[in-house]
Amino acid sequence: MNAASEETQRAGLLSEPQFLRLLRAKLATQIGQNIILYTVLIVVVERTESSMQSTLLVLSMTLPSVILGVPAGLVVDWLPKRALLLMVGLVRAGVCLALLQHGASLRDIYLLVFLFAAAGQLQGPAESAGLPGLVGRGRLGSANAYLILVILAAQVAGMAIIAPAFLKTVGESPLYVLSGILFVLGGVTYARTSGLGAPVEPEEASPQPRAPRRIGLWAGLEVIRSDRTIYLAMVELTLAAFLMKSLMVLTPHYTRDILHLAPSNSVFIATPAAVGALIGLALVPLLAWFISPGRLVTAGLLIFIAGLVGLGYVYFAADAVQEHLRLNLSGLEDRLGISSVVSMTMLLAVPLGLAFTVVSVGARTVFNRRSPPELQGRVFATQSALSDLASVLPLLVVGAVADLVGVRVVLLVTAGLCALAAGVARLVAPGQRRPDWLTEGGIGRKH
């Protein structure tokens, strides 16, 4: 396929009814998910005013991925993707109904949130594994970019608009009803998306001696360990997710201790990061013409780490920008009422959002292109489980440690350790080419 025809196919994604149907299903379920997660968090905080209770809720959201992520990938590879996504939507709608009836009990909320998150372990891998059959391998980068755009839009709609507005006016009960309706609509729309999960051949590789095919629960881990590019993309995506979740935990502390603003003003970091994410979505298809997805992931992680270091030294960064680049950041203080440090923080947040988007899209593209079709569900589920396992410690510890030693130290140490981990991963990564026994054709493209 020549460059012109490939570009035409990319541009034509939004004109394809089945891909648009996938985006609508994704939007409905993501809005419903964000509404539920925001609502139960606010309900628990308002009822208990206890950080320990909030931590238990976060663990209820996270532990299902750690416990069930890999088995869920096995289920995804065995069952039809569209029927599975319909089932997940119906189960989550049932959880919404149960929250409506039993939301007065904190214990019931924790159990229902655990069930809600457990059902969600099937949705992500099923959707990701079914995507190549719907759009083809040549357009995976653009397709993943659109899906991440939908995720960002759903976060804004669910967490920033719908849930806060309802909670301030009519309470949480109508939110449970609305979310249940969204999950049913999303599940039905997934089921009607023909082509999702259709058979597709992996990229071809040079012939190699064949070995017995590994099957079973840990086949996804075997694929990751046997292919250098997949392995590095998995490690770097996991590190980026760890850093992003750590940043989410630290943002209120950073806003209070570094910017000297109320924690509710974390919008000064979140909003520019969202802008950066949108810029990243626009840039990824262009960058993919010149840089392989594997290298995009590495570049994105390095930019993210550099951005965290910049936040750690934001006072020095603000002074350097004003002195050497002669940008009048202090003038914004007079015009907008924000300090030069806040302005610098907002500037640094843009590449953070951009970098995380580049990592996410690049890694998903690597997994889709290089994983055997029959094992992709397990590959995505394994990566998700490892990522969430790595996030448990930050969710429990990072905020508390920041209170003890300061958020700046935590940011810098976390960034440094992740940079070190990324370097070590490259030293211990397996060979470049994945074994041919993992699939009939193998993968010939080296990234």
Helix content: over 70%
CATH class of the largest domain: Mainly Alpha
> What is the CATH topology assignment of the largest domain?
Growth Hormone, Chain: A
CATH superfamily of the largest domain: MFS general substrate transporter like domains
* Integer tally of domains: 2
Query: How would you classify the helix and strand content by structural class?
Result: mainly alpha
Let me know the number of strands.
0
Biggest sheet layout = none
Give the DSSP E fraction (strand runs of 2 or more residues). Answer: under 5%
> Could you say what the CATH architecture of the largest domain is?
Up-down Bundle
| Unreliable segments of 5+ consecutive residues | 1-8, 204-214, 433-447
Order of helices and strands: HHHHHHHHHHHHHHHH
What spatial form do the alpha-carbon principal axes imply? Answer: globular
The span between the termini is 19 Å
In short:
With 447 residues, the protein is mostly helical. It has 16 helices and no strands. 49% of the residues are buried.
What topology does this entry show?
Blueprint: H1 3-11, H2 17-48, H3 51-78, H4 81-102, H5 106-135, H6 140-169, H7 173-191, H8 219-226, H9 228-257, H10 267-287, H11 293-312, H12 314-325, H13 329-336, H14 340-370, H15 376-405, H16 407-428
Descriptive key words:
disordered N terminus, 447 residues, 2 domains, mainly alpha, 16 helices, globular
Give structural notes.
Residues 1-8, 204-214 and 433-447 have low confidence and may be disordered. The chain starts with a helix and ends in a 19-residue tail after the last helix. The longest helix is centred in the first third of the chain and has 32 residues, at 17-48. The protein is mainly alpha-helical and 447 residues long. The chain has helices spanning 3-11, 17-48, 51-78, 81-102, 106-135, 140-169, 173-191, 219-226, 228-257, 267-287, 293-312, 314-325, 329-336, 340-370, 376-405, 407-428. 79% of the residues lie in helices and 0% in strands. It has two domains: 17-195, Growth Hormone, Chain: A, CATH 1.20.1250; 227-430, Growth Hormone, Chain: A, CATH 1.20.1250.20. It has 16 helices and no strands. It is globular and about 60 Å long.
